[in-house]
Design a protein that fits this description.
The protein is an alpha/beta fold. The chain is built from 3 helices and 8 strands.
Length: 162
């Protein structure tokens, strides 16, 4: 006679499996340098429960986005007026700003989560600059990551002739 099937043991195995392959939820938003939009972002975080929020054109006051909880960490370039930022909304994600590839138009992070290392960038391409400048920055990021995962969010200003 075959032994009885243990559903509790199977559920525990599935739970561990799911925990080791946990996903990360991301959001991208252009805040249009608006204090009002920045202050309302808190509601989006609570509704969406994103782990990482990529922003372009954030309204910054003392290097902070109004409405963002002090428990969240905001990463921006430390030079000039930042037009890109990344907000970490998950305390289990370790992040480091890669300063040599961050500037007022891009925030570039090395992230560690659940035993995995990957990279993330929030970028803003200024419509007054040649798009090649932004594309060269992406090439440098790809070279830097050496085949590790990379998430890139961009406000490219569409470059439409219309």
């Amino acid at each position: 006679m075959a032994p009885a099937h243990n559903h509790r043991e199977e559920n525990n195995r599935n739970h561990v499996h799911n925990r080791t392959h946990a996903s990360i939820k991301c959001m991208q938003i252009n805040l249009h340098n608006s204090r009002t939009a920045s202050e309302k972002i808190k509601n989006l975080f609570e509704q969406d429960r994103s782990d990482i929020i990529f922003t372009q054109k954030p309204f910054l006051y003392n290097r902070k986005i109004p409405g963002i909880s002090p428990k969240n960490i905001i990463y921006t370039s430390h030079e000039g007026k930042s037009r890109a930022a990344i907000v970490i909304n998950n305390r289990n994600i370790d992040a480091v700003l890669i300063t040599q590839l961050s500037n007022p138009g891009s925030a570039f992070l090395r992230l560690e989560y659940n035993g995995h290392t990957f990279y993330a960038a929030s970028m803003y391409f200024d419509i007054t600059e040649e798009i090649e400048k932004g594309l060269e920055k992406i090439d440098k990021m790809l070279e830097f990551t050496e085949g590790n995962g990379l998430i890139i969010t961009i406000d490219s200003n569409a470059r439409s002739a219309a």
